[in-house]
């Protein structure tokens, strides 16, 4: 099992909502993301599509776009993912996600980066 060390929950909500923080850090990122039934690229694709479908275009989506890039999703792939999801999640949402994705993949000189 691959482990992801996440502390965002405890860092931001540890004092205010310790149970939620623990579930975020240890269960969601520690267990669910570590489950090897799906590879990390697939998990990232799912999260991005769910966020788009819910219209959640905020810093948490940016975090997941950055994670997707680290997980091997290329600029060409993210473009295709956002375009596919646009027809289900909405065109304006796709525009917003493309804006974030351009920032995240801005240092990529190659179309496959």
TrEMBL record:
Q: Which Gene3D superfamilies match?
A: AhpD-like (1.20.1290.10)
Any matching Pfam family? CMD
The protein's matches in InterPro entries, at most eight in alphabetical order, are given as: 4CMD/NDH-1_regulator (IPR052512), AhpD-like (IPR029032), CMD-like (IPR003779)
Question: Which GO terms of the molecular function aspect are on file?
Answer: peroxiredoxin activity
Any idea where the Carboxymuconolactone decarboxylase-like domain is? 18-102
Top-rank taxon of the source lineage equals Bacteria
In terms of PANTHER family, this protein maps to:
4-CARBOXYMUCONOLACTONE DECARBOXYLASE FAMILY PROTEIN, BLL4600 PROTEIN
Protein name as catalogued: Carboxymuconolactone decarboxylase family protein
């Amino acid at each position: 099992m691959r482990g992801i060390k996440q502390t965002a929950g405890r860092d931001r909500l540890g004092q205010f909502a310790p149970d939620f923080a623990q579930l975020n850090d240890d269960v969601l990122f520690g267990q669910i993301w570590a489950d090897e039934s799906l590879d990390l690229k697939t998990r990232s694709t799912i999260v991005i599509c769910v966020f788009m479908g819910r219209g959640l275009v905020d810093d948490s989506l940016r975090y997941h776009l950055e994670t997707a890039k680290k997980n091997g999703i290329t600029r060409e792939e993210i473009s295709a993912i956002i375009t596919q999801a646009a027809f289900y999640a909405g065109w304006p949402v796709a525009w917003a996600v493309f804006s974030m994705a351009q920032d995240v993949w801005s240092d990529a000189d190659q179309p496959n980066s």
